[in-house]
């Protein structure tokens, strides 16, 4: 027996305001459980799902068979179209971390430029777009934020700026899943939806690097960096427009992010801002490092100093490429605390301090 069609009533309570409030209950429940009760995300999702089912049955009078069918369809769609993409992305990330290649990626991107403004664009803006296109689901923000914090960025500001940077690629999400979902819901052609998005978002993507940099520095330092911001924005926005309009919707973010990375890597090799921007606390640490380097009786004192930023600055002042922010890496990688101590002692011997290897 064929299932009878059911037409949703968008005003089931006979009052637009009350119907809207009731419709917002499930999403409000989700925000409440996450932000106020601090509940684990998966449990918050479960309780919000239960609330949604209750609202559909009690307020909108949706037939139980229809509710069951919608739940089944949503579950299959989530597993087939979204879940496998996220699982694959997390697997690749874990694989690169376990094999040590993720540190190589982080070091390679961070070594392109010492300027904090452009490290932000390379990691949060360009590399974050690649991660968004590969998997999405919040992983790009978490991964890029951890990379930047590891390079010495301030934790809270870094989380905010990574969320802001994600606004450029998030519309296409992991492998174009949001576009496919919108096409399935609306019945419109996926290519038309992708093309329309590709005409709306590129201007925002071109402007976004300037705003990201401005959140971290003053207007004066932002305008000093305008060539780099423009190069990143045009590379990303231009590729985003071309790929979404003339190729497909699946690889828009990946290709756009890779294009921005490539253009920025080449551009920053030939154009370097003057002066190179570092955070105020880093500049203060660099001055203190010079005093420590010239006043320390023994490199062991420097290597065991409690301020990791100061230790890293001393290493740099001594001619060592040893940023103190990288101490969390393994000593075998040459950037850990013992690796730093070895290089500090060797530096001390070269400086005539008679350093003793730890």
Summary keywords:
358 residues, mainly alpha, 3 domains, 17 helices, elongated, disordered C terminus
How is this structure best described in words?
With 358 residues, the chain is mainly α. It folds into 3 domains: 16-62, no CATH class; 83-270, no CATH class; 280-350, no CATH class. Helices cover 70% and strands 0% of the residues. It contains 17 helices and no strands. It has helices spanning 16-23, 25-36, 41-58, 64-99, 101-110, 116-134, 139-150, 155-165, 177-186, 190-214, 219-224, 226-246, 252-270, 280-295, 299-303, 308-317, 337-350. α6 (116-134) packs parallel to α12 (226-246). The chain is elongated, with a radius of gyration of 26 Å. Mean pLDDT is 79; it is low at 320-358.
- What amount of the residues lies in strands? under 5%
Strand elements, count: 0
Q: Kindly, what is the distance between the CA atoms of the first and last residues, rounded to a whole number of angstroms?
A: 81 Å
Please indicate the count of domains.
3
How many DSSP helices? 17
Secondary-structure element series: HHHHHHHHHHHHHHHHH
Helix content estimate: over 70%
- Give the overall average pLDDT: 79
The biggest sheet amounts to: none
Rg estimate, integer Å: 26 Å
Helix and strand content put the structural class at mainly alpha
Overall form: elongated
State the low-pLDDT regions, or none: 320-358
């Amino acid at each position: 027996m064929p299932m009878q069609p059911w037409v949703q009533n968008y005003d089931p309570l006979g009052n637009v305001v009350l119907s809207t409030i009731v419709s917002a209950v499930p999403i409000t429940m989700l925000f409440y459980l996450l932000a106020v009760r601090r509940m684990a995300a998966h449990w918050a999702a479960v309780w919000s799902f239960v609330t949604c089912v209750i609202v559909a049955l009690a307020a909108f009078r949706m037939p139980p068979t229809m509710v069951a069918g919608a739940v089944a369809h949503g579950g299959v769609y989530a597993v087939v179209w979204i879940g496998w993409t996220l699982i694959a992305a997390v697997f690749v990330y874990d694989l690169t971390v376990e094999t040590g290649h993720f540190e190589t990626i982080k070091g390679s991107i961070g070594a392109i430029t010492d300027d904090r403004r452009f490290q932000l664009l390379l990691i949060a803006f360009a590399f974050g777009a690649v991660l968004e296109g590969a998997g999405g689901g919040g992983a790009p923000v978490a991964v890029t934020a951890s990379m930047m914090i590891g390079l010495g960025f301030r934790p809270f500001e870094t989380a905010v700026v990574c969320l802001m940077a994600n606004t450029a690629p998030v519309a296409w999400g992991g492998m174009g899943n949001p576009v496919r979902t919108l096409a399935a819901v609306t019945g419109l052609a996926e290519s038309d939806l992708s093309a329309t998005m590709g005409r709306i978002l590129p201007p925002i993507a071109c402007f976004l690097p300037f705003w990201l940099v401005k959140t971290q520095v003053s207007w004066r330092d932002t305008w000093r960096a305008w060539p780099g911001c423009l190069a990143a924005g045009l590379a990303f926005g231009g590729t985003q427009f071309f790929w979404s309009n003339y190729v497909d919707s699946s690889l828009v973010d990946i290709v756009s992010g890779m294009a921005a990375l490539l253009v920025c890597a080449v551009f920053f090799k030939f154009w370097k801002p003057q002066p190179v921007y570092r955070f105020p606390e880093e500049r203060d640490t660099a001055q203190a490092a010079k005093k420590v380097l010239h006043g320390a009786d023994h490199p062991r004192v420097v290597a065991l100093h409690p301020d990791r930023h100061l230790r890293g600055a001393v290493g740099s002042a001594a001619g060592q490429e040893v940023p103190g922010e990288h101490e969390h890496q393994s000593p075998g990688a040459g950037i850990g605390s013992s690796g730093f101590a070895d290089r500090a002692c060797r530096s001390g011997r070269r400086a005539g301090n008679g350093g003793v290897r730890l």
